[in-house]
Amino acid sequence: MATREKPLKIGLLTSGGDAPGMNAAIRAITLAAAHHKLTCYGFHHGYNGLINQDYGILAPDNVTNIIHQGGTILKSARCPEMMTQTGIKQAVSCLIKENIDALIVIGGDGSFNGMLAIQDHWQGKLIGLPGTIDNDLDGTDFTIGFSTAINTAINAIDKIRDTADAFDRVFVVELMGRHSGHIAFNVGVACAAEQIISFENFDPLAQEAKLAEIIADIEQQKLNKAHSYLIVLAENLWPGGAHSLGEALKQQGNIDVGICVLGHIQRGGSPVAKDRILATKLGVAAIEAIITKKSGIMIGECESKITHTPLTKTIQHQKMVNDDLVSIHEDIFKIGNH
Ligand code: ATP
């Protein structure tokens, strides 16, 4: 008589910065797991959930009414213990003790490094889902959360533009993105920013030249009787950030500058349709990958097709902001305030 195979046990966690759409992915994974009769466990607070053996079963009832919620019902966290061999071994011990067959991690490049560390000590299957607002993972056109984050930033900046216009004022708005310019450049273009200072078009060594260029440009705009002047700045790029840039414009150009560091508002809020749908497709594909015995990969979507990319290749930061977009802003639209 043929022996019946034990149902696979899946572990799931969300790690690193939370991203809108993580809940939609959790829901999709849970429902697809239930469909294929797999057991799904949700580990809480990122990798801390493995280290502290803090988890609960994820059944369809647990994921009702979450697709529209930002954040993550599993909670997320940074987990410094994972940067140590002791922490990695504790995480692996938990997976072995709980007889987990496959672990799905939704997160960014740091979280994927965590999976690679686990991979050295564990035989189970490892699947990554790109969940970060930064869009800085290779192997997927978009990460879960990016579309919502840029829409949130655009909505906020449209409001800033109104008040800047009322006072004919210069504003510097600093956006998130860690070390990638996807958020800054896309939002800058979508908000018709007069200046976008991002990783694609700015070298911090050329700071003084850029300052002089901006001051001259603002003077020219005044002569043209243009209104507000918006500078979108990527975080971790200008030495000292938006406040330092604003201060330099004031000191060197006698310009009154409003400053806004948009910050965590970019992480929150209900995910837009694009993130909900992407998260749903990737979540279901993650379970299908486990069933077909794949491991060490990230599930992504390129040109509307599901893709499998080795985890090691997803964290190389090769994916740049689209050249056409950079060229539109830098070359074609450099004709004054519009
Ligand atoms: P985001 O960039 O969107 O915030 P992320 O996943 O890149 O997401 P990180 O804070 O870089 O966020 O990483 C999340 C967690 O992954 C860390 O707190 C740590 O637990 C784990 N991690 C990061 N790098 C490593 C590494 N080199 N080895 C083991 N674990 C790591």
Features:
338 residues; alpha/beta; Rossmann fold; 2 domains; 7-stranded mixed beta sheet; 4-stranded parallel beta sheet; 11 helices; 11 strands; binds adenosine-5'-triphosphate; ATP binding; glycolysis; ATP-binding
Q: Any idea what the CATH architecture of the largest domain is?
A: 3-Layer(aba) Sandwich
Q: How much beta, percentage-wise? A: 15-25%
Q: Using the coordinates shown, work out and report the CATH topology of the largest domain.
A: Rossmann fold
Number of helices: 11
Low confidence ranges: none
Structural class: alpha/beta
What is the average per-residue confidence, as pLDDT, rounded to a whole number?
A: 95
InterPro entries: ATP_PFK, ATP_PFK_prok-type, Phosphofructokinase_dom, PKF_sf
Keywords: ATP-binding, Cytoplasm, Glycolysis, Kinase, Magnesium, Metal-binding, Nucleotide-binding, Transferase
Subcellular location: Cytoplasm
Protein name: 6-phosphofructokinase
Task: Report on this structure.
Helix 1 links the parallel strand 1 (9-14) and strand 2. Helix 5 packs across helix 6 and helix 7 packs across helix 8 (241-253). The protein has 338 residues and is an alpha/beta fold. A seven-stranded mixed beta sheet has the order 3-2-1-4-5-10-11, with helices on both faces. The chain starts with 8 loop residues before the first strand and ends in a 6-residue tail after the last helix. Helices cover 40% and strands 17% of the residues. It folds into two domains: 9-145 and 271-314, 3-Layer(aba) Sandwich (Rossmann fold); 147-267, Phosphofructokinase domain (Rossmann fold).
